Amino acid sequence: MLEILYQNKYLVAINKPRDLLVHKSFIAGNIEEYAVQIL
């Protein structure tokens, strides 16, 4: 579970672990879990 610091209808600010990527990227390799999936 990610801590939501701020939220409105346009954005969400979260406190995420440093090793968790925000979204999928070609440099991510085999990582399959991202912050946008958890939210």
From TrEMBL:
Q: Name one GO biological process term.
A: pseudouridine synthesis
Q: Which GO terms describe its molecular function?
A: catalytic activity, acting on RNA; pseudouridine synthase activity; RNA binding
**InterPro entries xrefs:** PsdUridine_synth_cat_dom_sf (IPR020103)
* Protein name (record): RNA pseudouridylate synthase
Question: What is the organism field in this record?
Answer: Myroides indicus
